[in-house]
Design brief:
The chain is of the alpha/beta class. The protein has a domain of about 240 residues: 3-Layer(aba) Sandwich (Rossmann fold), CATH 3.40.50.720. The strands form 3 sheets. It has a 7-stranded parallel beta sheet, with helices on both faces. Helix 1 links the parallel strand 1 and strand 2.
Length: about 350
């Protein structure tokens, strides 16, 4: 038996692959397009590397996906592959439509054909786990109850709209064709191997380089933060025991405004990597023009997965953030390798002119 992981060279996917190979001897195949955020270096030094195969390709390549399913006969597909950065979706939505919607459609069709061709026992065991986001639910007012699995979809960015569409496709393939799917909607992830376009790694990388720490608007946008290893444990639990057709919200019970995140990062760096002139890293904070349609607050109610599957995050935000900052301090080569000319141009375009 084996598992097929799409987008497994990206941030969350790579952490899932690493954790899987450390804890299980079951073979795992990663399919990843290896775009800017998919990085084979994320597998360096990985335990159980001989049980893992990385295949470069698109989830929208139906022939390739069919060939992989035929060759490896996986008992499950864990679908991480997605364009995921809101800012990039605002600048150009095409890749988000192609990957998140059309790519998911092609993957579902290949999975359906594979599943229908299995014997009775294998069909009963097969699962398609679709990893999605809390951003499909839209924005919460201060004090409003956190998102539950019954919350209405109200996506506000091209990214969240494309993920909402993929969620609906997954639901439809279950209800129409019987494909055994489970969907998860997670809050903001952070941790090792996150490409430094997202808030936490961007702040760490910029602070270490003595560059400005750009904070959108007033910095009071609130997110629920989930340490990536906790998320990976939750997905494994959903794969193991989740009810077919159900949705599980996965959150960290850690609501924090963006500005508070940045100041906590600065405090850790002040302690572990003080600036030569003795000033705090907080002096690098720079408020920039807010992005269009910026959702004010997300929050996940994760009681369903706790009640049904016994999962709860292990990390507090303090412990998770400390591990994250320490990882970036300890892996300067990885950071240097991902900061290509294209990355530097993107950061300049996104923040320097605001």
């Amino acid at each position: 038996m084996s598992i097929l992981v799409t987008g497994g060279a990206g941030f969350i996917g790579a952490n899932f692959v690493r954790d899987w190979c450390a804890d299980s001897d079951e073979p795992l195949v990663t399919l990843d397009a290896l775009t800017y955020a998919g990085n084979p270096e994320n597998f360096a030094g990985m335990a159980g590397a001989d049980q893992h195969r990385l295949v470069q390709g698109e989830i929208g390549d139906a022939a390739l996906v069919r060939a992989l399913l035929t060759e490896h006969q996986p008992r499950a597909i864990v679908h991480f592959a997605a364009e995921s950065h809101v800012d990039r979706s605002i600048h150009g939505a095409d890749a988000f439509i192609q990957t998140n919607i059309l790519g998911t459609y092609q993957l579902l069709e290949a999975a359906r054909a594979h599943w229908q061709g299995l014997g009775d026992a294998a069909r009963a065991q097969f699962r398609f786990v679709h990893v999605s986001t809390d951003e499909v639910y839209g924005s919460l007012l201060p004090g409003a109850p956190a998102f539950t699995e019954e919350h209405r979809y109200e996506p506000n960015s091209p990214y969240s709209a494309s993920k909402a569409a993929s969620d609906h496709l997954v639901r439809a393939w279950h209800h129409t064709y019987g494909l055994p799917v489970v969907t998860t909607n997670c809050s903001n992830n952070y941790g090792p191997y996150q490409f430094p376009e997202k808030l936490i790694p961007l702040m760490i990388v910029n602070a270490l380089a003595g560059k400005a720490l750009p904070v959108y608007g007033d910095g009071q946008q609130v997110r629920d933060w989930l340490y990536v290893a906790d998320h990976c444990r939750a997905i494994r639990r959903v794969l193991e025991a989740g009810t077919i057709g159900e949705v599980y919200n996965i959150g960290g019970w850690n609501e924090q405004p963006n500005l508070a995140i940045v100041t906590q990062i600065c405090a850790l760096l002040d302690e572990w990597r003080p600036r030569p002139d003795g000033t705090s890293h907080t002096s690098l904070i720079s408020f920039v023009k807010d992005r269009p349609g910026h959702d004010r607050r997300y929050a996940i109610d994760a009681r369903k997965i706790e009640r049904a599957l016994g999962w709860r995050p292990s990390e507090t935000f303090g412990t998770g953030l400390g591990k994250t900052v320490r990882w970036y301090l300890d892996h300067p080569e990885w950071v240097a390798h991902v900061q290509t000319g294209a990355y530097r141009a993107w950061v300049a375009t996104q923040y320097d002119k605001r």
